[in-house]
C-alpha cells in the first residue's frame, strides 16, 4: 500500500480570504478544476492516469492545490533471481505527463525520503533502499528489495 500526494499551484484559483468571510481553503471535485495529466508508467495493463475525476482536491487561498489520488496500481518489475536467495531486486515507479513538456509542468518530489509508516515487514523479503529522482519530464521512485 502506498499513499501519493500531488500538489501544484494554480494562480487562477487563488482568492483574498478577507473578501470571502476569511475562508482560506475549500474542497472541490477534481473534475471541476484543471489538473495535471500525471500517469504511472510500467503498469501491467496500461499507463494509469492517477487523477480520478470523482476524487477531491483541497485548494488554499494562495492557489495551492493538493490531492491524494487513490487506487490500486500494479507495477511490473523485472526480477533477476540468478543469485537466489542472495538476489537484490529493484522496482521503479515512473511518473510522467502525457501532454505537458517539462517547460510547462515540472515533476519533482517534495521529499527525498519515502515514508515507511504503513510498511509491513515480510519474512520473504526486505525493503532496503528508497530514492527519488527527477529530470523534470519524469519523476521516479526506486525501491530496492532483497
Automatic annotation (TrEMBL):
Keywords: Membrane. GO terms for cellular component: membrane. Its main location: membrane. It comes from the Eukaryota. It is a multi-pass membrane protein. One of its GO terms (molecular function) is extracellular ligand-gated monoatomic ion channel activity. InterPro entries: Neur_chan_lig-bd, Neur_chan_lig-bd_sf, Neur_channel, Neurotransmitter_ion_chnl_CS. It is found in: Membrane. Signal peptide: none annotated. It holds the Pfam family Neur_chan_LBD. Residues 2-129 form the Neurotransmitter-gated ion-channel ligand-binding domain. This is Neurotransmitter-gated ion-channel ligand-binding domain-containing protein. It comes from Dreissena polymorpha.
